[in-house]
TrEMBL record:
Protein name per Swiss-Prot or TrEMBL: Phosphotransferase
InterPro entries, A to Z: Aminoglycoside_PTrfase, Kinase-like_dom_sf, Pseudomonas-type_ThrB
Keywords, ordered alphabetically: Transferase
Any one GO MF annotation of this record: transferase activity
Organism: Roseburia faecis
């Protein structure tokens, strides 16, 4: 992506149906995909109004029109549900600010795509879990997201990243990367390669059930990290699920599993001391309780029973992707030091092995939480 010029940003600002006078313009957030700005407008006697302006990353999302069609459809549906239950649609879902010609995005003269949202006031997001309660509240929010969208026609959504959680296809790509060994790293990581190759049944676990029509396709978020939930500054409760770029058809178990993979680990994603890495059963139990509460009975009994497997499959998939990227010369995941993707792969395989040891315990926790 090219660097943004001031002229380009001013062109984008002028394209949206903002009110008032622009009085502040700052870079916002910690995301690595899109370019995000927080704009403040003075609106007469009404005070100041904050909005988010983003340039979408066309390298990560090559069809921004389809992406915004997904987001407009889902947020419009959520608003109706939120109003019906007496909630606040201004805070509990993203609100798209249209362009002056009433479109959900703007394409500038450089060919870049922009969008804008109302800023959610009185709430914050966190990159790391600081308290168990935060993890629990994020679980309730992601579960509620599932429940509110349970009757949304998932088949009408575009795949913004085709095959994003097709673990079976990821396994085939991994095998290819091992065979090709384009940068000559395979010899040094034979143990790690073997770990993933020996677990082909994990890669195919959900795909086989999908082939047989045993699992429902749902609207899924596909990036269920804590920082994609806004938590109320006063109550600490989840207010709004954000970053809907990867909302598309998927499996509820994958949304649950990705949150566990990242949030219930006892160590950083690139921890070198693997003795520090495990899946916390305390955090697993807390998230399970919150997620199922949020889902409010919208999952099938089989989906609920497969939640622990979702944690294993997502952790396995992510670890395999880290190792594949290492074998291909670190082309996809950003690294800040040599070997970082290998370290990431090792933490994930350590988590997978720990989950295998604790699978019965995880299943018991889910059964108890499901009542």
């Amino acid at each position: 992506m090219r660097a943004i010029t001031e002229q380009q940003k001013q062109e984008a600002i002028a394209a949206f149906a903002y009110e008032g006078t622009l009085i502040a313009d700052t870079v916002y957030g910690s995301g690595h995909i899109n370019d995000t700005f927080r704009l403040t407008f003075a609106v007469g006697n009404m005070g100041d109004l904050d909005v988010i302006l983003q340039r979408m990353n066309a390298d990560a999302f090559p069809h921004p029109e389809q992406l915004m069609e997904n987001i407009a459809g889902v947020t419009g549906f959520l608003k109706k549900k939120i109003i019906a239950r007496g909630g606040d649609p201004e805070r509990e879902t993203l609100n798209i600010i249209p362009t002056v010609d009433n479109k959900p995005y703007y394409r500038d003269t450089n060919g870049d795509y922009w969008r804008s949202y109302r800023f959610i006031t009185g709430a914050s997001s966190f990159d790391q879990v600081e308290t168990p309660q935060q993890f629990y509240e994020s679980a309730v929010a992601f579960g509620s997201f599932q429940r509110l969208l349970a009757d949304y026609p998932a088949e009408t959504l575009h795949e913004t990243i085709p095959g994003f959680h097709d673990t079976r296809a990821r396994f085939a790509a991994f095998e290819k990367a091992v065979r090709e060994d384009v940068v000559g790293r395979a010899a040094e990581v034979q143990k790690e390669i073997a770990f993933f190759l020996e677990r082909k049944e994990t890669a195919c676990y959900f795909a086989g059930r999908l082939d047989r029509g045993e699992l429902p396709i749902r609207v899924t978020h596909n990036d269920t990290k804590l920082n994609n939930v806004m938590l109320d500054d006063k109550t600490g409760k989840g207010v709004c699920v954000i970053d809907l770029d990867t909302v598309m058809p998927g499996l509820a178990m994958n949304d649950f599993g990705d949150a566990i993979r990242y949030g219930a680990s006892t160590a950083a994603e690139d921890e070198r001391d693997l003795s520090e890495v495990s899946c916390s059963m305390e955090l697993f139990s807390l998230f399970t309780k919150g997620f199922l509460e949020g889902c409010g009975g919208s999952l099938t009994p089989e989906e609920t029973a497969l939640l622990p497997m979702g944690a294993k499959v997502m952790t396995y998939e992510c670890g395999m992707r880290f190792l594949m990227d290492y074998l291909q010369g670190d082309r996809y995941f950003k690294i800040h030091r040599d070997g970082q993707n290998l370290d990431r792969a090792r933490t994930q395989l350590t988590l997978v092995a720990d989950m295998e040891r604790k699978m019965q315990q995880m299943q018991d926790i889910v059964r108890k939480a499901a009542g």
